[in-house]
Amino acid sequence: MRILKYTLNDFDYSFPKELIAYHPMPRRDESRLLIIDRKTKNIKHKKFSDIVKYLRRRDLVILNDTKVLPAALEGRVQGSGYRVQMLVLEKISDDAARCLVKPAKKFKKDAVILFSNGSIATVIEQFPNKILRFSCSVDGLLKKIGKMPLPPYIKRESVKSDFKTYQTVYAVNTGAVAAPTAGLHFTKNILNKISRKGSNIARVTLHIGHGTFKPVRSNDIAKHSMHSEQFSTPKETINLINTTRKNKGRILAVGTTSCRVLETVARRGHLLKRCPREGSTDIFIYPPYKFRLTDMLLTNFHLPKTTLLMLVAAFCGYDLMMQAYKQAIEKKYRLFSYGDAMLII
């Protein structure tokens, strides 16, 4: 069924809650891989290590090398002892940061929060997010007692192993509060196999913000206001994209974040002669959309009614995507951040 204009309700689906992956697989590449061929409309079920078979010589794999901050903190309100959870969204100075604090109603200006290592933080501004001034450097505090900021639908405490598993093996540029989860499946061995096959690997950076979890509230999805995130594209990556296009290779975007960077830089010309190499992007991709640089997409399964699911529908085709999700649920694929993956070719 071809719909010319999709509404929010078109991106709803049901799934058993037990399919949510609360923990990663023992090995990254043990996850399952659902393959969608847009040309033939075929859907196949493989394992993630099979991804190498779907790449060719001269193809280009684009990775998002952002690194997740241990941005989750716990403390207690001075006086009442009330427990508080917070997420550091943005560092403003060495000792001040914009934070998401829960429960927000408990905190007014000048409220003081005590941390387990003896540090304190004072609320110096309330809206739209709390701005806190810390008694030490923000980076130092996060390094000492910060935890990995797991997505809100993973209903468990962050543990020590998440510092490794909720981070890609190629993460280098610190700044995200959520992982580019399609990349979590890669091991160094698989990346080496891709290189040996003759495919190139390049990097972009998009620091994923808490806005990635922002719900779409308007049934007219075109009215949704997309969050803005910082990105950068190295000159070497620009050159490899141009070379790949010249040699008629294909470009695989690893994750919706890499895809959004590619489509952002493509806005100023297909050959990227005058594209922005860094800045912010609030690109919102939903059907119908003409992709300019993304030829293949690797992505995890996404929650209903999210902008991530809408991007996948724009790339895959709505009906084919919904068919793939139906099969994945029937075959009990593991869902969301720590779950299985799909490759759309």
TrEMBL record:
Main localization category: cytoplasm
Role of this protein: Transfers and isomerizes the ribose moiety from AdoMet to the 7-aminomethyl group of 7-deazaguanine (preQ1-tRNA) to give epoxyqueuosine (oQ-tRNA).
Keyword Lyase belongs to the record: no
Keywords tagged on the record: Cytoplasm, Isomerase, Queuosine biosynthesis, S-adenosyl-L-methionine, Transferase
Family per record: Belongs to the QueA family.
Complexes and interactors: Monomer.
Catalytic activity from the UniProt record: 7-aminomethyl-7-carbaguanosine(34) in tRNA + S-adenosyl-L-methionine = epoxyqueuosine(34) in tRNA + adenine + L-methionine + 2 H(+)
UniProt keyword Flavoprotein, yes or no: no
Top EC group: transferase
NCBIfam families: PRK00147.1, queA
Pfam families in the record: Queuosine_synth
One GO location term (cellular component): cytoplasm
Protein origin, superkingdom: Bacteria
Enzyme Commission number(s) of this protein: 2.4.99.17
Cell location: Cytoplasm
Pathway recorded for this protein: tRNA modification; tRNA-queuosine biosynthesis
Taxonomic lineage: Bacteria, Pseudomonadati, Candidatus Omnitrophota, Candidatus Taenaricola
InterPro entries membership: QueA (IPR003699), QueA_dom1 (IPR042118), QueA_dom2 (IPR042119), QueA_sf (IPR036100)
Name this polypeptide is given: S-adenosylmethionine:tRNA ribosyltransferase-isomerase
